[in-house]
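Regression test attached.
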Amino acid sequence: MPFRVRKRRGARVGNSVIASAGLAASGDDASERAFEAVVTADVRRLYSLALSILDDAGEAEDAVQETLLKAWQAWDSLAQMDHQVAWLTRVCVNHCISRRRMLRSRGWPLPGLIDRAGPPAGAGHDAERVDMDRAYSRLSTKQRAAITLNYRHGYSVDECAVFMGCRPGTVRTHLERGLATLRKELKDD
Amino acid sequence: MIDIGPRLDSRLRAKFDRIDAEAPPQRLLAFRPTATRRRHRSLNVIVSVCAIAVVAAGIAAFAVELGGHAHPKPAPSSAQGGPLPKLPVYSPAPPSPTVITQVPMPVYGTGFPASWHIVIPVTKHTGSAVLPTFVPEGWEYIQYACTGIGHLQIVSTDGTVSESLRSCSSRARPVNAQISGGYGPLSEGRPVTLNVVTSSSVQWEIIVAETATPLILPTLPPLPANAQVLVPLTYGRGIASLPSFTPHGSNQMQWWCSGPGGIQVFVSNGNESTGASTCAGGPSGGGGTDLTTGRRETLVVDVTPHCTWEIRVYWQPGDSSG
């Protein structure tokens, strides 16, 4: 395992919020530059990750923004870490998963369930792409997260489990069921 | 990494390529960390501190209030009683009630004739209490008032005195200030203790006055069946003012007097005579009528300094003749 993200990282984030207030209040330009060099440079990757999991541009944008905000609030401790990218990934994944849960608990329509009558005008979607989008929208958030992290980003199952806050066996289940759903929807048996 | 078929692999790869090709919004690329919500957090802290302070103040006020109920003022001790130093029975000096500041009670003691002796000075208290013991040597009259939710009852240990006031007023003003009917002669020579029985939240004030033991005067004629006494049987010597009352338009007076000169009863606020008779040559009876109505009034018995008298004022409902 190349790195290890402790599950209690959230507590450290909470504590560092207080410290970061002082940091921000002092207007430390050096910290701001360091933050931009590490975090802002990773925005594109985080956005792709969030978009892959949430399958909605607006929700992905919100998720990444929340991740950046948390990173800034915890920058005092985050700057001292060796694996800042892993920290950002985990926060972003957790936020994507919990955001779906939050939307569901409030009775709001989930992004994937919003009626998509057809492709946007001028998008030039072919039939295969439309089928893939429809099949992908059938996946649950955790299934998308598992497939994205494991298949697209190349993380191992154990690493995916750390990012998603669950056991490796659960990640495997999400992977298998997600791929099975895709095969079924795409009739790729 | 798990195994995916080649067809699904190509489709998934194409899907993720399309996702990766989407550029993040400019809002994310231009993210400025200084735009954090520090001011909101500060405001939240201030609001939280204020809210906690308000709640703490409320709890403290409630605790203080609760403590006040749990530890009421001590009742006047009966040990303060015993034979009180008495003024001369027919002293012309008026009673000197204590100035009342807490509760705007009515004028205390002013309703008593100046010659009466104050047995228990103005006593203020909240809730039930035992008044100082005194040794009666005449007729006792009680003037009292109360405010708060509840009733007030004044009883003596032997049951001779049993005075009930109507419901006390919950407003700061007015309270049911009234003078009781005469009690006497009480157990002459033996101490008497009055108990004030009421609910714990009722504030009350009381003063007890005493007239001298009646001189030997004839008994007044009996009252009519439906008569309502306005001024109870009162004895005196010399000039005196009677307890105030609210006239009803046909207020009857009965008196006996004995001594030099004569007796005349008039309304203090208008010098309107309501009746007169002579007292010389032995006890002589008489009466009068007061036709005023409405505002509270006080009658003054005007006699020579050595003339003794007894008087009673009543009202007879339905009697419009006067």
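Expected vs. actual: identical. Confidence is low (pLDDT under 50) at residues 1-25, 113-118 of chain A.
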